[in-house]
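Lecture notes, unit on binding sites. The following record was shown on slide 14. It pairs a sequence with 5-amino-5-deoxy-1-O-phosphono-D-mannitol.
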Amino acid sequence: MCGIVGYIGKNKANEILINGLLKLEYRGYDSAGIAVIENNEIVCKKDKGRVRNLYNLEGINELESTIGIAHTRWATHGKPSMVNAHPHLDNHNTFAVVHNGIIENYHELREELIKKGYKFYSETDTEVIPNLVNYYYKEEKDLLKAVNKACKDLKGSYAIEVISKDEPDKIVVARKDSPMVIGVAGNDKYVASDIPAVLEYTRDFYLLADGEFVELTRDEIKFYDEDLNNIEKKIEKIEWSEKATSKEGYEDYMLKEIYEQPKSIRETIGSRLKENEKCQFDDIEIDKNYLQSINKIKIVACGTAMYAGLVAKNTFERLLKIDTEVDVASEFRYRDPLIDEKTLAIFISQSGETADTIAALKLAKHKKCKTIAVSNVIGSSITREAHYTIYTHAGPEIAVASTKAYTSQVVLLELLAIHFAEVLENNSEEIETLKDEILQLPKKVEEALKTGEEVKELANEIYAQKDVFFIGRGIDFTVTKEASLKLKEISYIHSDAYQAGELKHGPIALIENGITVIGIISDKKLVKKSVSNLQEVITRGANVIVVTDKDLSKYNFKKIIKVPETNKLLSPILTVIPMQLLAYYVSKAKGLDVDKPRNLAKSVTVE
Ligand code: M6R
């Protein structure tokens, strides 16, 4: 949540900062601001609303400074307003701070500072930081040391940038449980909470770890540990192209990302699976003895990533015959789960920065589980915590609603299940069929994407509905969960997903004349059962739409959306495609901002 950019170099900072914030709006978009040092004074420009509003602030375009910090906010403490927007300054306008994360003890710190004579103007937790820095600077007379002392008082999570008019050629950066990277291009140095913010300037990045501090001056970058001992860090080359973070002619990132899926799935498969060969995972060392020793697989994640886990559970259990449970990270971490060294724990996170998923992973390690992170972002926090990391390689996902990351997560987990089955020598014809089908997925996804026009027509018919229900059985139920989340998060239509067999136990009371019910049907064995459940809602006046890979034309459904057939275990990768498109087109029909739905942010770095 929230996006941070910083710059020190030879160019005008305001342009680079605002440009970077525009690329980070998916992280938060209720207010934005920048602070630069001009003529030895801090100049701060901020306002409520979108980043582009910054261009209208008086004097912002005339700023000549070549050092500055910037922030786009997703409100946690205090409503979106000019006063609550970052940067925040200390009482003497000497220090400016931008902050991602949450300071849990801000109330106590604020009280302490008030006793010392400081005044507070915003409702934010962040405002304690510049005042704490001000307080410690009085004794330390050194920005880095003052920031370090202030950080020792903070409980919670933070990624911060600090500038001071007393040390006008310096940015100090610190991180704990909130991501931050430093990009370099010659003498130009960039700070960002997310790589895409500054990808147009550099591919060379230092990835900060928790507890690290950085001092950026015009001539050098110095890294320190939490006790301010010097540390060495290695530059990482980030292969994402700038093109990958632009819309490339699509109206919205979400549409671009939906249509990128044949390519992203190809990248996920990469060299892990080749025709007539065993599945290769060079990034993990898990052998037969270990797999024979475990009695449980736990998959933990949030939101869409968790729904990817629900799909994969079916394959893990079928191929490995190991009990596989899927858990929501925010519940798992507080439930004292029954896990131990006989549990393999897999954590899925596109961003690799989701606070609950990272905390869940730390708990699993503490309980002696072997851990695997599935992430899309190289070097993200989760990848540094897990024993092993496997990357989806789906390319940057910018739209808040996850689409290509989901299908890549499912594909990667399917490959992992196959790999484990091969390690266990559980060879079967089904595994060979699955492998063939996975290799055909990019082509089949291309076919499924051809449903775009008919889905758009459907969206134009249903966009004014108040409720939409999704039902399915078995593997199809996992897709209804994802379809329902997608629709509600970007169209704001209330929607729920049910196991088709559960309808009669309560939810069918909600079915009334004219309501839309969408059924997903791909499991051959369950077709008749699902069709019967759909007939029951038709009888009660529902308009039924079916997404299927079967020929169901003989039934009286209002509409049937056909996708190519594949192995049952992989069918979610195809049946979800029209559902992603439906959410997209319904949102468009309602005139909403598809990429930046209200109240949401791309990565949820607070619990
Ligand atoms: O970055 P992560 O995969 O950890 O994010 C998990 C969820 O926050 C994310 O999938 C969320 O549910 C999306 N808005 C879904 O479209």
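Take-home: The radius of gyration is 25 Å.
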